Each structure stands twice: as C-alpha cells, then as structure tokens.
Amino acid sequence: MPPSGTDRDIHVPDPVDAVARDAETRPHPRSLPVPLIAAVAALGGLLFGYDTGIISAALLFIDKSFPIGTGAKQLVTSAIVAGALVGCLAAGPASDKLGRRPVIILSALLFALGSIASAWAGSVPSLTGARLLLGLAVGAVSQIIPVYIAELAPPARRGGMVVLFQLAIVGGILLSTVIGWWLGGDAGVWPFPYPGGNWRLMFLLGVLPAAILFAGMFLLPESPRFLALRGDLPRAFSILRGVRGSIAEAAEELRSILAQPREDGSWRLLFSRPVRPALLAGTGVAMFSQITGTNATIYYAPTILASAGFGAGAALQTQLLIGVTIVLATIIGLMVVDRWGRRTLMLRFLPVAALGLALLGASFLGGNPAGAGRYAAVAGLVGYEIFNVGSISVAIWLVGAEVFPLAIRGKGMSMVALSHWGFDLVVSLFTLSVVQALGTSGAFFLFAVINVLAWLFVFRLVPETKGRSLEQIEQSLQAGQFTAMR
C-alpha cells in the first residue's frame, strides 16, 4: 500500500469556496448600486473644484474686511496647492494602511473645517491657514477617490464611473463661478462676527457638499480589494456579492484578486524596475495634463476675448464660457471612454487640441486679432478646451487608479497626484514669464507643440486598459507586457 501522506492525498482548501458556501446560508447583502456609490464618492471632486475656484471671486472683496495686498493674495491663492502637495503624499500610505473609506471620511471633515475656518478668517495668516487645511483635503481626495471608485466598479464600466470624479471637479469650478457671480457685490449678508460681505458666505457654502460626503460615506462599503489585501475575505466577499449581484461572480473576482502575488507594499516596490512602466504612465499623463496649457489658456481667456472685441464683460463671459465648455468636454469624455478606451481617446483628441492652439496662436500673429481673426481666436480656444480637457484631463485620474498593483495602489496614486499638483504649481509660476518671453502667439504655439509631445508619450508608453480587470492589468505588468496592451 502506498503511504498515506503522498502528494495525491493532500488537499489544500480553497478559502473562497469556504466563504462562498457560508454566503449561501446568509441573506443576500443589500448594497447601493455602484453608479450611486461612485456619485456619492465623487462629491469629493465637487469640493476639489469649488474650493480651488471660489478664491478668484472671494479675493475681489476680502480687502473690504482686512488689508490684503497683491503678495498676500498670491499667498492665499497658492496655499491650497501647497496643502494639496502634502495631502496627496500623506493619503497614499494612509489609504493602504487604514482603508480607502476612512481617508475619504477624514477628507470630508477637513473640507468642512477648512470652509468654516475660511469663512471666519479675520486676517491673512488665518485665511492662509484655512486654505492650507482645504489643500490637505483636496490633495487627499485627488489621491484616494479615483482608487476607491476603480476598486468597486466592474471593468466594463470602470472608466465612466471614475471619470465622474473629474466631471465633479469641473462642475465644482463652474459652480464656484456661478456662486461668485451671484454673491458678488458690496452688500453684506454675513450676520456673524467679522463683517465684510458675501465672500465669507462663498467659503461657507462648501460645508454643504462636505457634510453630504461625510454622511454618505458611512453608508458606502469599504473597497473589497483593500479588505482582501488585509485578509478579511468574508467582508470582501460580502461586498463583492452586494455590488456584483451573484455569488459566482463575486467568487470569481475574489479568486482573481487573491491570485496576485502578495507584495510588501513598500515605497521601494513602487520604484522598482517591474513597476516602473506603470509609474511612468500614471505620472506622465498627470504631468501632461498640466503642461499642455489648460490652466494657462483659462488664465488668459479674459484677455483673449477682450482683445477679440467682446467688450467690458469679457471676464465674466469668459469664465462662464470656459466653465460650460470644460463640463461639456468632460461629459463627452465620460460617454466614450469605456467605448473607445483611455489610450484611444487621447490619441484621437490630442491632435485636434494641438490644432486648436495653433489656430489660437495664428490669430494673434501680428497683434490682437480683428475681423474674422476674432472668431478664429474664440474657435481655437473653445476647440482646444474641448479636445484637451475631454481627453487627457478625463484620463488623468482614471489611468492612475488602474495601472498600479494592489499592494501599492495608494502610494502609486499619491505619485500621480503629486505630479499633477507639482506641475500645476510650475505652470502657475512660469506662465507669465513664458508669455513675456515668447509673446501671446508664441506661447500658444509652444503649448501646441507640447500637446503633440503628449500624443507621442501616450502612443509609446500608455497602455489600453479598457475592459480589463485591475488584476489583468497587474498581471501584464508582472509579465513585462504592460506597454504592449493596445
């Protein structure tokens, strides 16, 4: 007789089978639909856009409450970017250790506290501190919310659901423009200490979406992938069953999650050679989203339309025009990103964005445009915003949330957000110098060339992740086939 301890007699139990059998004896867990989960989480993007945008209107009236010079205005404005740089780096390790959901809840609390502190500020230092607090929250949500949505969404619809975050950002910017216009003026409705007008109410209104996000997150589940990474298979399976609708589908997805190597999750792994292609793709898309000229064109849009003959109301008209344009562009990107793919969307749209900038630059050759040149300038500006914002700005948070292995996804997304905020700061510091050195026309031609370089970068180094599960993307990275995904 063969010995009883041969390999044929050894049976290794499947942990997923065990939790699946246990689930069959329990009631089907109730869960909110994934689109609703994504919409609630995306409120962090609305706060992101609102709190970064409302300062432009508030600064017009703050000096009626306390002295604030040009340098102080720049300090207050840039404080949110400085805070975001810290927030995005801190949120990555925190989300990998504590979970995605607690970090979002903490961010909502910081948004509320920062909004209240901004509204009650009685000096430049106190307002700067409040804006730094808001920046911590902005940086954190830019890191964690795309990851949270991506880890809950099914592969076929993951793109559109993650892009809800970007749509909320541009919607928040547009909302800040409308609120700033509505509350603008000298009439003070602020009934509390530190009188001075409606700029305080502009800041305080940010508490409303922060409170909804804070309360809503207590109704939403934790990421099942984070729970699986931490070994809590029953909870991970229960959440997957709730959002996928069947035991079989949940079991299959949980098995694919557990099949990935259990890495140590260190910063060293993030910068290792096997992960480097994902790091380059994620941070590169974030970089190009900033240096291709979006912020610069928005900054100079009032001047562009004023010189094109739009009269004294050019600033407000431009803000509203650009605000509506970037929202429509993001909706277009959301509608096609799962049908075309992330890579394909950028490859199709970026060349048209470059042409829009070239048209804009050409209209300023020889001075301010006149006659038909005015309409060419407007067409170039709007066309550029649609095709740049509708592609690379749509893809920035999505690509970053998809390409990193589970063990370091939080840290990887921190680097994507750091790239975004770092280059945002560079653009804000040097755009004026570029325009002064090259002229308006030359600056737009330069941004057109950078859009072409962005296209080349996407063509060579960014894979197509459409329809693939996060685990399939991770497998391609481990196999050295990451950039081969087309």
Structural summary, described in words:
This protein is an all-alpha fold and 486 residues long. The protein has two domains: 34-220, MFS general substrate transporter like domains (Growth Hormone, Chain: A); 269-478, MFS general substrate transporter like domains (Growth Hormone, Chain: A), CATH 1.20.1250. Helix content is 74%, strand content 0%. It is built from 21 helices and no strands. It has helices spanning 15-24, 34-41, 43-53, 55-58, 70-98, 100-120, 124-152, 158-183, 199-204, 207-217, 224-229, 233-244, 247-258, 267-270, 276-291, 294-307, 314-340, 342-363, 372-403, 409-461, 470-478. Helix 5 runs antiparallel to helix 6. The longest helix is centred in the last third of the chain and has 53 residues, at 409-461. The radius of gyration is 24 Å and the shape is globular. The relative contact order is 0.13. Pfam families: Sugar_tr.
What are the key terms here?
mainly alpha; Growth Hormone, Chain: A; 74% helix; 486 residues; membrane; 2 domains; single chain
What topology does this entry show?
Blueprint: H1 15-24, H2 34-41, H3 43-53, H4 55-58, H5 70-98, H6 100-120, H7 124-152, H8 158-183, H9 199-204, H10 207-217, H11 224-229, H12 233-244, H13 247-258, H14 267-270, H15 276-291, H16 294-307, H17 314-340, H18 342-363, H19 372-403, H20 409-461, H21 470-478
Structure in a nutshell:
The chain has 486 residues and is an all-alpha fold.
**CATH architecture assignment of the largest domain:** Up-down Bundle
| CATH top level label of the largest domain | Mainly Alpha
User: Which percent band covers the strand fraction?
Assistant: under 5%
The backbone outline, from C-alpha atoms, is globular
Transmembrane segments: 36-62, 74-91, 103-123, 129-150, 162-183, 203-220, 278-300, 320-337, 349-366, 386-408, 420-438, 444-462
Subcellular location: Membrane
InterPro entries: MFS_dom, MFS_sugar_transport-like, MFS_trans_sf, Myo-inositol_Transporter, Sugar/inositol_transpt, Sugar_transporter_CS
Membrane topology: Multi-pass membrane protein
